[in-house]
Amino acid sequence: MNKPRLAWAITGSGHYIEECLDFLLTLTDVDLYLSQAGEEVLKMYGIDLADVRTLMPVYRDKAASAPPVGHFYQGYYHTFVMAPTTSNTVAKCVLGIADSLATNLYAQAGKCRVPSIVYPCDVAPEIETTAPKGKKVMVYPRRIDLEATDKLRSFEYTAVVDSVDELIVTVTQRLNALGLT
What we know:
Layout: E1 5-10, H1 17-24, E2 30-34, H2 36-44, H3 49-53, E3 58-60, E4 77-85, H4 87-95, H5 101-111, E5 116-120, E6 127-130, E7 136-139, H6 143-152, E8 158-160, H7 164-177
Parallel strand pairs: 1-2, 1-4, 2-3, 4-5, 5-8
Antiparallel strand pairs: 6-7
Helix pairs in contact: 4-5, 4-6
């Protein structure tokens, strides 16, 4: 290993997924992790995974034990980003459930004291988002989803961001702090 990399997970949320992916594709030294739902959502938004694979390694959620999480114990990753993140994944992270690739990555990053940056899809009582085929829609997260997002904000080694712009700033600041930009 030459230098630690960034691990990025996409779960099944389409909330600003194209903007998140546009930013992700500007970065170097990144490994992309896809939940099964994340892979489905990329297809729904017309994003060709083959194009992404030409730019970075892509790991898919195909094994029960999520073997790639062992990279955290080897110092392979300096930061974990999960963006966009479903309310289901946020709830599991808050409860300490690590039963998927994305939730296992988050758990192992925390256990290894690797900072995580999470962009949940449910950050406000009313949110405009883009559905597949570009249609703008309003979404009204449930109180329980907003409460889970707020709980995640208090977790150690975790920064929760509320927008793509904040995601870009936070990831860039982290890379700058590590001297990686």
